[in-house]
Amino acid sequence: MIIKDANLDVIATRRSQYPDEGKPEFLLVGRSNVGKSSFINSILSRNNLAYTSSKPGKTQTLNFYSVNHEFYLIDVPGYGYASTDKKTQNKFGLMIEEYLEKDKN
Ligand SMILES: Nc1nc2c(ncn2[C@@H]2O[C@H](COP(=O)(O)OP(=O)(O)OP(=O)(O)O)[C@@H](O)[C@H]2O)c(=O)[nH]1
Ligand SMILES: [Mg+2]
Predict the structure, then answer these.
(1) For position 82, what pLDDT does the model report?
(2) Are 79 and 34 in contact (CB under 8 A)?
(3) Measured from the CB, is residue 58 less than 6 Å from ligand 1?
(4) Which of 5, 39, 40, 84 is deepest in the core (most CB within 10 A)?
(5) Is the CB of 89 within 6 Å of ligand 1?
């Protein structure tokens, strides 16, 4: 697939902020620091589109990357990042659960 266009379209923390065009969405889930954001840059052949870090806990929101105006790749916070406090971990969990339960795309 030729990536003609890739950009960060929407940053969301709750449902009302999700894009609503009905395009397919692919969510990348995994442990913190496992390389989810790096993977997005890699498959889109973009070096610094998704922010990465050698320290866990970099991605803190639902980041919707529009690809060729056809679909979205969504970068999300990783799970298992014990260094954040319980309250923040819980917030990340609820944010992703809301997406998984409510988003139809
Ligand atoms: N050796 C190696 N390191 C990688 C690879 N992919 C990513 N990394 C490194 O792993 C670290 C974490 O990468 P990120 O892409 O920020 O990880 P993440 O899963 O998005 O992390 P969170 O946003 O905290 O959930 C960075 O230092 C990357 O350079 C890989 O394939 N091999
Ligand atoms: Mg990340």
Answers:
(1) 65
(2) no
(3) yes
(4) 40
(5) no
* Whether the CB of 96 sits within 6 Å of ligand 1: no
CATH code, 75? 3.40.50.300
Q: Is the CB of residue 76 less than 8 Å from the CB of residue 26?
A: no
pLDDT digits (tens, 9 = 90+) for 24-46: 999 999 999 999 999 999 999 99
User: What's the number of domains the chain is made of?
Assistant: 1
| Structure confidence at residue 10 (pLDDT) | 98
Could you say which residues of the chain have pLDDT below 50? none
Q: What domain range includes position 81?
A: 6-102
Ligand 1 geometric centre to CA of 64 (Å): 18
